[in-house]
Amino acid sequence: MKKIYMMITLLALVACTKEQIGIDRGDQLDPDVLAAPASVGLHSGRTAGDLVSLEMLKGEGMYTEDLYVVAGKPLDATLTMMLQAEPSLVQSYSAAAGVEYQELPASFYEFIGGGAFEFREGLVKSEARQIKIFSVNKMGNVLECGRYLLPVTLVSPTSDSSSSTIYIDVTVREPYETLAPLHDGSELFMIFYINTSEFDPRLATSHYINKMDFLDPAGNWKAGVGNIVNLRKTSVGYDEESGRVLLTLSSDMRYLIDNYNEYIRPVQETGRKVCLCIEGGGKGIGFCNMTDEQIADFVSQVMYYVNEFGFDGVNLWDRNSGYGTDGMPQVNKTSYPKLIKALREALGNYKLLTLVDYEEPTADFWDVAACGGIEVGKYIDYAWSGYVEQIYQVVDPYNPGGTGVSTEHIRKPIAGLNSKRYCCVMGRPYTKSDNPNVDSDSVQQWLEAGLRQNNMSVHYDVRSNTQDEYEGAGCLLQNFLMDFLGWNNPYMLDFQQLSNTPSGYNKWKKSW
After folding, report:
1. Which DSSP symbol is given to 215?
2. How far apart are CA 309 and CA 313, in angstroms?
3. How far is CA 229 from the centre of its chain?
4. What is the pLDDT of residues 425-444, one digit of tens each?
C-alpha cells in the first residue's frame, strides 16, 4: 500500500520509553551522552504509553487528538519530521496484543496542518499537531462497528534519530442498551457518589424505579435514577519542590480515566451527568489557602481532565485537607470563593459546578464581604450537605430548628443560591456498625412539616445489593423513597438490577 506521510505532534516522556527516568540533583552526565544525538520519540497527550484508545458510536462522533514530538535533550540542529502511517504493523501488533484489529481506512482520518514540519533547534518538545478521526467520512460513508488500528511512525529524512510508533486503537460500537430512560428528575432528582476504590462507575446505571398504578396497569413504567454521578476519589496534592498545588488522582481513578470509554462513557450515554469529585488530600493545603497563582494553575489542571476526557463537571468537597499542618499557609476566607469563580469561568455555562456544604471551609459563604465580594451561589449549579455520619440526615439552612432538621449541624444559606438548588437530604448505605432495622424518621418528619423545597436527594457511596454483612443497599433506597415521597407513593426500587444472578451479590464490584 502506498505510504501516507502525515504530520503529528505528541506529548511524551523522553525517547520511546513508558517510564520516566530521573537524575538526582548534582549528578553529572557522561560526556559521551552529552555528545550523542538527541533521541526523538512520539507520544500522545492522552496517555503515557504508546497506545491511544478511542471509542465512537456508529455514525456519530469525531475525535481530535493532540500529538507531540519530544527529544531527550535540546536539539543541536533543526530536524525535518514526518509522520508515516504504517498499516503493515497492524498484523504483528494484533498478534502480540491478542486482538483482531482491522486497519483503519485512510478516508476516516486526517492530520491537520500537512505531513511535514520542522522540529527547531534548541527545543525538547515540538508544537502540538492534531489528528482527526471520524466515524463518518467526507463522502458520507459510515465506519462499521469493529476494532481498528492506526499505527503512526515518526521519520526524519534529515537525521538518523530514533523513531517510535504510536498505535491508535479505535473502537466503533452501537449505543449501549438501557432498560428504561433516565427519570427527568421532576419528582426524584437523585445525586449519587460512587467510591471507585470499590465499585465500577457503571453501578450507577443499575438503579431503576418502577411506578406502579394498580388501578391503571397501563400507567406502570420503569425509569432510571441518579441524575448526577460523582466519582471519587480525586484529591488536592502538593509538590514541595515547585510549590505547585496538584490535582491528584487515586490509582483507581487513574485506571478509569485511562479506560474512560469502557467505564465512564456508558454512564453518560444513559443521560446521567458524570463529575469529578475533588476532596482534600491531607497535605495542609486545599481550596482555602491557595494563592492566586496556585488557583489559576489548579484550574488549568482540572480543565485538562474535563476537556480531554469529557467529564460533565466538577464537585468540590473540602474535607480532610489538614489545614494548619506541615507549615502550610493559614486559611483565608477568599481563596475558596476565588477558586469557585475561576472554575465557573473556565467551565462555562454547560458544565456542572457543584459544592458540598461541610464544616469550616463553607461556613462563611453566607457572608459576601468575608468572601471578598464574591456571591458563591451565583457561580455554582447546586450545593448539598456533606454530613454522612447518620443513615439519614436533614441539614436545612433555610429552616434551622425545623421539624426533623439536624440540631447538630446548623448551616446558613449560601449567598446568591436559590433554596431550590440546595439539597438538604443526605443518605448513605448502612454498614455493619449500624442497626439496619432502625431507620431515622427525620426525613419523613421534615416532609410532613412541609419544609421540603425541591426534589433533590444525595446518596453517598451507593452500592450493590449486598455489602457489610447486610443486604441493605437496596432496602435503604426503598425506605428513603417512602420517607421522601410519602408512604403512599407509587414508586418501588427495582432490586433485580442491583444484583447479579443467580448469586445476587456485588453487582459491579470493581474488576481491575
Report:
1. S
2. 11
3. 10
4. 998 876 666 665 555 678 88
